[in-house]
Design goal:
203 residues, alpha+beta, Immunoglobulin-like, five-stranded antiparallel β-sheet, 30% strand
């Protein structure tokens, strides 16, 4: 009987000691481990996002305001436009009466020049009245100016000092024009006057 009591007390003592012994660390389940890892990851993402600096938009660039510019008045240059002559009488030669100004040394008529002369036939091949001016270049006999007026499709022969000339004319008619040219009249010859130019037939 004593022996049975001793065994029973021994069992109680062992159970008591086992109950008082420290408990071991419980092992977490897989679900708990996943939840912890997810929470740690979310925390790390939030911290990283907070560390990124915020992009502040730049203020808009102000465009310059156009400054009104007052128009500046430009000086008006008046140029004299040569007046076209009225309808001319046929075959009128006025090489002696044309002059520019008294101050122009070459403004005198061609007839006042000395030296040899040539007989020149001016042929107006246009359908308008022609007024042709002749300006001779200065040579050993001087210089001067002359004028020949010719009706449409007519011609006139006149005596002019030998030398080189500038020609400028007006043609008034169905088609107005301004023939011009350059040539030397150093012998008897024929000059055709067209709408815009002169043709020296014998040169």
């Amino acid at each position: 009987m004593k022996r049975s009591m001793y065994v029973l007390l021994s069992l109680f003592a062992i159970l008591a000691l086992a109950a008082c012994a420290p408990q071991g660390t419980p092992t977490p389940s897989i679900a708990e481990l996943q939840a912890i890892a997810m929470a740690n990851a979310q925390t790390q993402i939030a911290l990283t996002a907070a560390s990124i600096p915020t992009i502040t938009p730049l203020p808009p660039t102000l465009e310059p305001t156009p400054i009104p510019v007052l128009p500046t008045e430009l000086p008006v240059q008046l140029t004299e436009t040569p007046v076209q002559p009225a309808a001319l009488a046929p075959a009128v030669v006025t090489t002696e009466d044309v002059s520019l100004t008294s101050e122009d040394p070459c403004g005198g008529p061609l007839s006042e020049m000395d030296g040899p002369y040539s007989q020149v036939t001016f042929n107006n091949v246009t359908d308008g009245d022609l007024s042709l001016y002749l300006y001779i270049y200065t040579n050993e006999y001087g210089c001067g100016i002359g004028n020949v007026s010719i009706a449409p499709l007519e011609s006139v022969t006149t005596s002019v000092p030998q030398g080189c000339y500038d020609f400028y004319g007006w043609i008034t008619g169905p088609k107005d024009s301004t023939p011009a040219g350059y040539g030397c009249l150093t012998f008897d010859q024929t000059v055709k006057v067209k709408n815009n130019t002169l043709v020296f037939v014998d040169q």
